[in-house]
Prior knowledge:
This protein is of the alpha+beta class. The protein contains three helices and twelve strands; from the N terminus they run βααβββββββαββββ.
Amino acid sequence: MRLTTRRAAAPVAIAVASILTLAACGGEEDPATPEGGDTQTEPAPEPEETESEEAPEETTSDDADETDSDDAETESDDAGADDAGSDDAGASADGAAPWANPITTDGESLGTIELGDVTVEAFEVTTDVATRSSIWADPDTDEPIVSEGDPVVVINYVVTNNGEPVNLSYGLVEVGLNYDSWPFMQQPSVADSTLMESVGVNDNGVNSDSLGEDVYTLGTGESYSVAEVMLHQPGEAYTIEADFEARDDAGERNGNEFEGEITGTMN
């Protein structure tokens, strides 16, 4: 059975739904140059001759040791700064890819899906109530399938590459929970970014500075995380499915497809 969007907001719902379908689921002036005119200078007076020049002060061995120690500390500090700077180009301290939002791994693990060298671990983060309603409506009642105030559960997914670097499309790895007995094609999810922010999970795996890229390379050992909010149905059987198709450097499919799933019962 297909869902309908609510009549009162049909144009908006259709537009938002289309966006959700398409979206997965970023000179300096030259320093001023001082100006100055040419000036004429007179020759400096020649220094007067003196009968004797003062001898330079001698440097004691203690002074030399202190100077050498200071130089060594300076070189060590510079080397440390270089090492710290070199980390900025790769994954962050938590293992997140350079284009990804910070990773969150809170919650109870529901299991891990293996997609070749890429793994997807699912976590049940928390249960709460929806802060907004879904754009999808029940075709019989014309009511949202998830209404503001309904009980919901937050599911978080952590995607990690354990092999060679792999290129992903803007949709990254497609992953989501499906209730086995749910009667409609559209699962009871709601794009509740307010709730996700309040519990510290990402509504998008890609950070705001990296949106719109054709290819997102997930390097060896790198990860990203993304969450979804579902209607909470305790005791219901579910299946979590994940899949992706690797891309070449130009963003074209290279024929390597991976898919997998895990099953369980909602707490």
